[in-house]
Amino acid sequence: MNDWVIAQDWNSYSAAEHALWDELFARQAAVLSSRAAPAFLEGLDVLRMSKPGIPDFTELSKRLEKATGWSVVAVPGLIPEEDFFDNLANRRFVAGRFIRKPEQIDYLKEPDVFHDVFGHVPLLVNPVFADYMQAYGRGGLRSMRYGSIHRLARLYWYTVEFGLIRDGSALKLYGSGIASSASESRFAIDSDSPNRLGFDLRRIMRTKYRIDDFQQNYFVIDSFEQLLRETLDTDFGPLYEELDTLPEIEPGVILPTDRVLNRGTQSRVADRP
Ligand code: PHE
Ligand code: FE
User: Fold this and answer.
1) 129, 133, 138, 149: residue to mutate for ligand 1 pocket, most atoms within 8 A of CB
2) Backbone phi, then psi, for 244, in 5-degree steps?
3) How far apart are the CA of 227 and the centre of ligand 2, in A?
4) Which of 47, 224, 232, 243 has most Cβ atoms within 10 angstroms of its Cβ?
5) Is 70 exceeded by the pLDDT of residue 273?
6) Chain segment 13-32, per-residue pLDDT in tens
7) Using alpha carbons only, how large is the chain's radius of gyration in Å?
8) What is the arithmetic mean of pLDDT over 120-136?
9) Ligand 1 in contact with 139 (CB < 6 A)?
10) Are 158 and 207 in contact (CB under 8 A)?
């Protein structure tokens, strides 16, 4: 199998690209200090490299390997699902090597090195989350045999990318799609627009998601242990078959069976042109 790994070629980044990383890092660290999960903030230290700018994946991987056995490898862009899952199953996190242009500082569609590394790597330092990501990769390979990649993609979306977690009586963010965006970090935690619902594996795997705007629903886990335990202890094989007989759920919907932590106003959707 082609694993798509390329050289990061750290020396080929320009001074401006390194400076853009440093600016994004400083801005995001400030936004996250009161909003990100403690485990995410602890993991951020792994990104404080011996030289400023975009982390050198070789140095970063050495640190990660010591912590949890993960490494970070560069790939040219989005890669086929099977190879993505296979890398995760082998504790290799695949990351884009390019960084956004200065005019895209607030938003870009494709995952760049800031999203992939700043957003994803801090939690790979956490032993429980590190195990979840590997289990997810194995589960992804298995989902292909059931024609159910889309269900596992939804689980990734609502946990790894856009998940919230309880921290005492507060809600904090841990999803990388939120953590790498200043505006969605504020929205996900501070706004009264989105619904915040208790984590529900079966429900999540039936729920469509938006890729063109902030999320309308966020799902809240109690702990990373809960996330790992529930996903590992559930045999997804029969579940995929059962879920195929049930209707899909639109983003932004609240069901009578949902555990509602915050009922959102959905004002962001109403305001949309
Ligand atoms: N238990 C899942 C299965 O049977 C595998 C899995 C684990 C999927 C963790 C996602 C996350 O396929
Ligand atoms: Fe991502």
Assistant:
1) 138
2) -65, -15
3) 18
4) 224
5) no
6) 999 999 999 999 999 999 99
7) 18
8) 98
9) yes
10) yes
Which stretch of DSSP H or E encloses residue 123? helix 120-124
Tell me, in angstroms, the distance from the centre of ligand 1 to residue 139's CA.
4
pLDDT tens, residue by residue, 206-265 = 999 999 899 999 999 999 999 999 999 999 999 999 999 999 999 999 999 999 999 999
Give me the pLDDT at residue 270, please. 73
Residue written as token pair 């990649």: 149
Q: Is residue 83 classed as helix, strand or coil in its secondary structure? A: helix
Regarding the beta carbon of 239 and ligand 1, being less than 6 Å apart is answered: no
The answer to whether the CB of 54 falls within 8 A of the CB of 8 is: no
Measure the CA–CA gap between 221 and 238, rounded to whole angstroms.
23
Among 188-192, 211-215, 223-227, 269-273, name the one with the lowest average pLDDT.
Answer: 269-273
- End-to-end Cα, the chain, rounded Å: 45
CA distances from 172 to 3, 130, 241, 267 (A): 34, 19, 33, 21
User: For residue 47, what is the DSSP state?
Assistant: G
What residues have CB less than 8 Å from 203, skipping those under 6 apart? 197, 249, 255, 257, 258
